[in-house]
Design brief:
The complex is a heterodimer of chains A (920) and B (116).
Chain A: H1 7-18, H2 24-37, H3 41-60, H4 65-72, H5 75-86, H6 106-123, H7 125-154, E1 165-171, H8 182-191, E2 196-211, E3 214-223, H9 227-231, E4 235-238, E5 246-247, E6 250-251, E7 254-257, H10 259-265, E8 276-279, E9 282-290, E10 305-308, H11 312-315, E11 332-337, H12 343-359, E12 368-373, H13 381-419, H14 421-429, H15 434-468, H16 486-510, H17 513-521, H18 531-565, E13 576-582, H19 590-606, E14 610-616, E15 628-633, E16 645-652, H20 656-660, E17 664-667, E18 681-685, H21 686-692, E19 702-705, E20 708-716, E21 731-735, E22 743-750, H22 754-768, E23 773-779, H23 780-785, H24 789-823, H25 825-833, H26 838-871, H27 883-909, H28 913-918
Chain B: H1 5-22, E1 25-26, H2 27-37, H3 46-58, E2 62-68, E3 74-80, H4 82-105
Antiparallel strand pairs in B: 1-3, 2-3
Helix pairs in contact in B: 1-4
Classes of the chains: A alpha+beta (920), B alpha+beta (116).
C-alpha cells in the first residue's frame, strides 16, 4: 500500500524511525505499523515519535529487539487500532504480554537473566568476542604451558611411601653428584642392610627393536631385580622384573613394556604377555606392562621398555657386563629405609662402605657417598637449583599473564558499566530492585567468564598437544603423556569469575538514590571523564607494566640463546654427518672385527660426496657417552691421594680430525704406521699442554694411559669436550688400532645434505653385515643442537608468554581507546564541525589511551631492570642490563601501543559531525 | 495468570486513569508503572497501551503534550483532565461495589493451598 501524504512527511517519518539506531527488525515493523495505520500529517508524525520514543526507552532499559517486537504484537492489527483510536472509536485491546506466574518466581527469573545475558552478548558481538578471546588466551595458553612445566618438573612420582626413599650419589672432586657403577651399587647394598631394606638402581639405555623388517630405537631403563619392589610400583598387566630374574652376573631375557608403548604400539593387547620381542638381534619375553601412572625414574624421559641391567652387555655391544664395570658410573641409585631407620644411621653405614672401598683401593680417599631424600630431588641435584628457579620464574610469568587477562575482562566490563549507568538509574527510578539488577549484570559477567574459560580449556589442550609433539633435537626419544592441569585451569577460571563479578557489578554496588537523580539529570553529553575511567587507566597501566617485564625477560633469553649459538665448539664448521655404529655382539673376534671395520671405513671413503671420514670412540659434546680414565704424566705429580688425573680421551682413525675440522697445531696425525703392535703414541690438545706442561711444546713428552706408556706425537687445537660453557678442557687421542672398540662413532664431512649422508653411512655399513647396529644418524649440527635445548626451550617459553601478554595488553589498549572515543563522539563532532583537522583529533584521542601506556611502560622497564638481576644465573653470554634487548623491547612495544591507539582514533576522526552531534 | 480480555477491557483504562491521577507520565513510564504497581497482573505492551491512550485522549479524559525533559529529550506526557478526574471517581465507585459484591459471594476468598 503506497504511503499516504506527502513525500516530505514520509521522509521525516523515516528520519525519526531510523534516527536512534534501533534494531533493523524493529524499524521495519514500526514503518509497517505507521504505513498501515492510514494516518497522515501531524497525527502520523505524532504517533511515529511516540512509538519510536517508547522503543528507545525500551532499549535503554535493556530490552532487546525480540522483546520489543513482541511488545508491538501483530503490526497490522496494531495499525488498525491506532488508526481507529486516533479517529476516536471503541478500544479493542488485548493484553499481548502473557502475564505468567513464573515471572515472579526465583528460578524463572534466573532463566530469564541467563537468556537475557545471552541476548546482550549477541547484541554486542565485538565486545563479547574480545572479552572471551582475552580470557581464552589468558587461561588456555597459560594452563598449557604450566601443565607441561608441572608435569616435567613438579609432579610427584607414584612411589609407595616416598618419604622412606633416599637417593645415593658419589661426591668426588670431578663431580659433586656422580651416579654409581653397578659394582658400587652392590657394595652399598651389602654394607647397609641394617638401614636400607633394599637398594635398587636404574640406568638409561637404548635398545634396537626389530619388528616387521624394520628397526627402531627405544628408550630403555635397565634396572636391578629389586627396582620395582623398592619403589612400590605395580604392574598393569602380568608382572614386573623381579629378583628371581637375576642369576649371578646374568639375567633371564625378560622385558617389561611401558604402559604408553603397550597402548600406542600394541593396541593395548591383553595377550601381550608371553610374546617375544627381538632386541638387538636377540629374543626377549614380554612378562608384563608397567602401570599407567609410572613413568620411570627420570622426569620427562618416559622409557618404552624396562630390562634387567645385567643384560646390558648383549643389548649394547661394546660394553661389558655391568658386574665388572667399576668405572661405568651410569646407575641412579635409591635405597628404601627400613621402618624406624633414620638417615643418620644410613649415613654411618654408607661411611663404612666408603671406607671399605678405599681400603680395597677401588676408591681414592677423597670420595664419599651422599644421601638425599628422594622427595627433595626434582631431576638431578646439580640441576635442581636451576630447575626450581626456572619453575618459580615460569609460575610467576603464568600468574602475570593471567592477571593481565583478568584485568582486560575487568576493563571491558567497567566500560560497559559506564554505558549503562543511566539505564540502571532509570530502571531504579522506575522501581527495579538492586537485587534484580545485580542478578542481571552478574549473569552477564558470569556468562563471559564461563565461555572464556571453556574456550580457554580447549585452546589449552590444543597448545599442549602442539608443545608435546614438537620436534625436539634429542638423542633419545621422549614421550610425554599430559593432560591439562586442572588446578591451574580452575584457578584461572575462578580468577576471571571474581574479576568479572567485581567489575560487572560495580555500577549496581555504587548506585544510590542521589546518584540516580543526578545521573538522570546529567544524561551523557559525552564529554568529560569520570572517576571510573581512571580505574580503567590504572588497569591498563598495570597490564602494560607486566607485559613490559615479560617482554624484557623474553628479550634477554632470546639474546642468551643467540649467544649460545655463537659459541665456537672448535669443530664442525663444515657440514658433516655422524652415526654411532656397533658390530653385533659375540660374532666377531678381535682380528675379524678389525678387518671388518677397516673394510667399512674404506667403503665410507668411497661414498660420493664424502670429503673426509674418520671413526672415534668419543665424539665431542656427546651427551650419552663419557669416556675418561686416569692418566699419569711424566714429571707431573698427581693430585694428593690419587694415582693420576682423570681425563677424557678418544680412540680415533686417521681422517677423523679432518672430518671434524679440528686443526693440527704441531707434530703429526696418526697414520697407518700406528698399528696395534707399534710404539704407543697419542695426540693431545693445546689445553692439556698448557695445563700440565706449561711453557713447553709438548711434542715428545710421555704419559701413561690405559696401562701403557705413550709418547705425544701431535698437538691439536682445543675443542669443547663436554659442554659449550666449559673452560678449555684437556683431551687425549689414541690411535684406533691401539685402543680398538667394536662400537664407535663415524664422522663424515660433506658439502651435500648431511642428514641424508648419515643414513647412507648406516646402510653402507649394513651392506657388509645386516646385523650391524646403528644409532642416531644425524648431522653434526643437530648433534650439537642438543646442548642448546634448555636455553632454547626457556627462550621459546618466555617468548610465547611475552607475545600472549603483549597481545592482551594491545587488545586492552585498543578497547580502552575505542571506548574513550565512543564516549567523546559528540566532542569530536563539535571539534570537526568547528574546523579541527583530522590529524589533531587523532592525536587528541590517542593521547587519552597512550598516557596510561606511557606510565605503565616506564614502571615496567624499572621493574624489569630490578628483575633482570635475578635472572643473571639463567643467562648465558649476556648481561641482565643488555641494552640491545631493552632497546628492541621498547621499540616493539611502542609500535604495538601506537597502532592499537591509532586505529580507533582514526576511525573516530572520520565520523560525520552532524550525526555525532545529533546522537546521544 | 492470564487475565481474560473482558476483564482487561474494564480494568485497563481505570488503572491508567488512576496512575495519571497521581502525576503525569509518558507512555513507557506508564506501562512500567502499571506492571510494577499491579505486580505484573496487568501488563501492557505498546499494542495495548497506545490504542488505549489514544482512546482516552479522544474521549477527553486525558490530554497529551510534548514536553522536553531536563536531558533534552522530547516525550509526550499524559495527564488527567477535569473530565477524566470525574470519570475516575465514578469508575472507582463502581469497582468498589463490584469488589464488595464479589467478596460477599466468596469469589475473593483464596482456594485451598493458594496464597492470599
Amino acid at each position: 500500500m503506497p504511503p499516504r501524504g506527502s513525500e516530505r512527511i514520509w521522509a521525516r517519518v523515516r528520519d525519526i524511525v531510523e534516527g536512534p539506531g534501533l534494531p533493523h527488525t524493529v524499524e521495519k515493523k514500526l514503518m509497517t505499523v505507521l504505513r498501515e495505520s492510514g494516518l497522515a500529517g501531524d497525527p502520523l508524525l505524532d504517533v511515529c515519535r511516540e512509538l519510536v520514543t517508547h522503543m528507545e526507552d525500551g532499549v535503554r532499559a535493556g530490552r532487546d529487539s525480540d522483546d520489543l517486537l513482541e511488545d508491538l504484537g501483530d503490526e497490522r492489527r496494531l495499525a488498525g487500532w491506532i488508526g481507529r483510536e486516533k479517529r476516536l472509536g471503541e478500544p479493542d485491546f488485548r493484553d499481548r504480554s502473557p502475564i505468567s506466574e513464573h515471572r515472579r518466581s526465583g528460578l524463572g527469573s534466573l532463566a530469564r537473566y541467563v537468556r537475557y545475558a545471552f541476548r546482550r552478548a549477541r547484541q554486542s558481538p565485538g565486545f563479547t568476542l574480545t572479552a572471551v578471546a582475552s580470557l581464552a588466551i589468558g587461561i588456555g595458553a597459560n594452563t598449557a604451558i604450566f601443565t607441561l612445566v608441572h608435569h616435567v618438573l613438579l609432579s610427584t612420582p607414584p612411589y609407595e611411601e616416598p618419604e622412606r626413599l633416599v637417593d645415593l650419589y658419589i661426591d668426588s672432586p670431578e663431580m659433586s653428584y656422580m651416579v654409581l657403577s653397578y659394582p658400587e651399587v652392590m657394595a652399598v647394598r651389602e654394607g647397609t642392610t641394617e638401614a636400607f631394606e633394599a637398594v635398587a638402581a636404574a640406568g638409561l639405555g637404548v635398545a634396537q627393536l626389530e619388528e616387521g623388517g624394520q628397526t627402531r630405537n627405544l628408550l630403555t631403563e635397565l634396572v636391578t631385580g629389586n627396582y620395582f619392589v623398592t619403589l612400590g610400583v605395580d604392574a598393569h598387566l602380568g608382572r614386573l622384573i623381579g629378583e628371581a630374574d637375576e642369576h649371578g652376573e646374568s639375567a633371564d631375557p625378560v622385558v617389561v613394556l611401558s604402559y604408553g608403548l603397550w597402548r600406542d604400539d600394541y593396541g593395548g593387547d591383553p595377550g601381550i604377555v608371553g610374546r617375544e620381542l627381538v632386541l638387538g638381534g636377540r629374543s626377549y619375553t614380554v612378562v608384563g606392562v608397567a602401570s599407567s601412572d609410572f613413568a620411570g625414574s627420570f622426569r620427562g624421559l618416559v622409557p618404552d621398555l624396562y630390562l634387567p641391567v645385567l643384560l646390558r652387555a648383549q643389548l649394547e655391544p661394546g660394553s661389558s657386563s655391568p658386574a665388572q664395570e667399576w668405572g661405568n658410573h651410569a646407575y641412579f641409585t635409591k635405597g628404601r629405609l627400613r621402618p624406624g631407620a633414620t638417615m643418620e644411621q644410613a649415613r654411618v653405614l654408607t661411611g663404612n662402605v666408603t671406607a671399605g672401598l678405599v681400603e680395597e683401593d677401588r676408591w681414592s680417599s677423597d670420595r664419599s657417598l651422599t644421601l638425599i631424600p628422594t622427595a627433595d630431588v626434582l631431576l638431578f641435584p646439580p640441576l635442581d637449583r636451576f630447575i626450581r628457579m626456572a619453575a618459580v620464574l615460569l609460575m610467576a610469568v603464568v600468574g602475570f599473564v593471567l592477571l593481565i587477562a583478568c584485568a582486560n575482562l575487568a576493563s571491558f566490563l567497567l566500560a560497559r558499566s559506564l554505558d549503562r549507568r543511566r539505564e540502571i538509574a532509570v530502571r531504579m527510578a522506575l522501581g527495579a530492585s538492586r537485587r534484580d539488577l545485580a542478578a542481571q549484570l552478574g549473569a552477564e559477567a558470569l556468562l563471559l567468564a564461563l565461555v572464556g574459560g571453556a574456550v580457554g580449556a580447549v585452546l589449552g589442550s590444543v597448545v599442549l598437544q602442539a608443545l608435546v609433539t614438537a620436534d625436539l633435537p634429542l638423542p633419545i626419544p621422549i614421550t610425554l603423556d599430559v593432560g591439562l592441569n586442572r588446578a591451574v585451569l580452575a584457578f584461572g577460571l575462578i580468577a576471571s569469575l571474581v574479576a568479572g563479578l567485581l567489575f560487572g557489578l560495580l555500577p549496581v554496588l555504587g548506585a544510590s538514590r542521589t546518584d540516580v537523580a543526578s545521573t538522570l539529570k546529567n544524561e551523557a553529553t559525552g564529554v568529560g571523564r569520570s572517576r571510573v575511567l581512571s580505574v580503567r587507566g590504572l588497569l591498563l597501566a598495570g597490564q602494560v607494566a607486566v607485559s613490559m617485564v615479560l617482554l624484557v625477560g623474553a628479550g634477554l633469553f632470546l639474546r642468551s640463546f643467540q649467544a649460545t649459538l655463537s659459541v665456537d665448539p672448535g669443530f664442525g664448521r663444515d657440514p658433516a654427518a655422524t652415526v654411532t655404529v656397533a658390530l653385533p655382539a659375540g660374532v666377531y673376534d678381535d682380528e675379524s672385527a678389525r678387518a671388518l671395520v677397516r673394510q667399512i671405513l674404506d667403503d665410507f671413503r668411497a661414498i660420493p660426496g664424502v670429503e673426509a671420514v674418520g671413526l672415534t670412540t668419543n665424539l665431542p659434546l656427546n651427551t650419552l657417552n663419557r669416556t675418561n680414565s686416569e692418566v699419569q704424566f711424566d714429571g707431573v705429580d698427581p693430585p694428593v691421594g690419587r694415582d693420576g688425573f682423570v681425563l677424557d680421551h678418544a680412540a680415533i682413525t686417521p681422517g677423523l680430525l679432518d672430518a671434524l675440522g679440528i686443526p693440527l697445531v704441531r707434530g703429526r696425525e696418526f697414520n697407518s704406521a700406528d698399528a696395534r703392535d707399534s710404539e704407543p703414541v697419542v695426540m693431545v690438545n693445546r689445553a692439556l699442554v698448557e695445563r700440565y706442561w706449561p711453557g713447553e711444546e709438548g711434542l715428545g713428552r710421555r704419559l701413561r694411559i690405559a696401562g701403557r706408556d705413550a709418547v705425544v706425537v701431535g698437538i691439536t687445537s682445543t675443542t669443547k669436550v663436554r659442554s659449550l660453557g666449559e673452560p678449555p678442557t684437556p683431551m687425549i687421542y689414541l690411535p684406533f688400532e691401539q685402543d680398538f672398540s667394536q662400537s664407535f662413532q663415524v664422522v663424515a664431512r660433506t658439502r651435500g645434505n648431511a642428514d641424508a649422508l648419515a643414513l647412507t653411512l648406516l646402510t653402507t655399513a649394513r651392506a657388509r653385515d645386516p646385523l650391524i647396529l646403528g644409532w642416531q644418524p644425524q648431522s653434526l649440527q643437530r648433534h650439537v643442537g642438543v646442548l642448546l635445548l634448555p636455553t632454547r626451550l626457556a627462550a621459546l617459553a618466555i617468548s610465547l608468554f611475552a607475545v600472549v601478554a603483549l597481545t592482551l595488553a594491545g587488545v586492552g589498549l585498543y578497547g580502552m581507546v575505542s571506548y574513550a572515543v565512543a564516549q567523546r563522539r559528540r566532542e569530536v563532532g563539535i571539534r570537526i564541525s568547528l574546523g579541527a583537522d583530522a590529524g589533531g583529533v587523532i592525536r587528541m584521542l590517542m593521547g587519552t589511551g597512550l598516557r596510561p601506556v606511557a606510565l605503565g611502560g616506564l614502571a615496567g622497564l624499572l621493574l624489569a631492570l630490578v628483575g633482570g638481576k635475578l635472572l643473571s644465573s639463567l643467562l648465558f653470554g649476556v648481561r641482565p642490563l643488555d641494552p640491545i634487548a631493552y632497546g628492541l623491547v621498547a621499540a616493539v612495544f611502542a609500535s604495538v601501543a601506537v597502532l592499537a591507539a591509532w586505529a580507533p582514533a582514526r576511525r573516530a576522526s572520520k565520523v560525520d559531525p552532524v550525526s555525532a552531534l545529533r546522537a546521544e | 495468570m492470564r487475565v481474560e480480555r473482558e476483564l482487561m477491557r474494564g480494568a485497563g483504562p481505570v488503572a491508567v486513569l488512576q496512575l495519571l491521577a497521581s502525576r503525569p507520565m509518558y507512555g513507557y513510564e506508564l506501562a512500567e508503572a502499571v506492571a510494577r504497581g499491579t505486580e505484573g497482573v496487568l501488563e501492557m505492551g505498546q499494542s495495548t497501551l497506545y490504542p488505549l491512550l489514544y482512546n482516552l485522549e479522544g474521549k477527553g479524559l486525558i490530554r497529551g503534550r510534548w514536553m522536553e525533559a531536563d536531558s533534552g529529550r522530547r516525550r509526550k506526557v499524559y495527564g488527567l483532565t477535569k473530565k477524566g478526574e470525574r470519570h475516575l471517581v465514578g469508575q472507582r465507585a463502581q469497582w468498589r461495589n463490584v469488589v464488595r459484591a464479589m467478596a460477599s459471594l466468596g469469589v475473593l476468598a483464596p482456594e485451598d493451598g493458594e496464597g492470599a
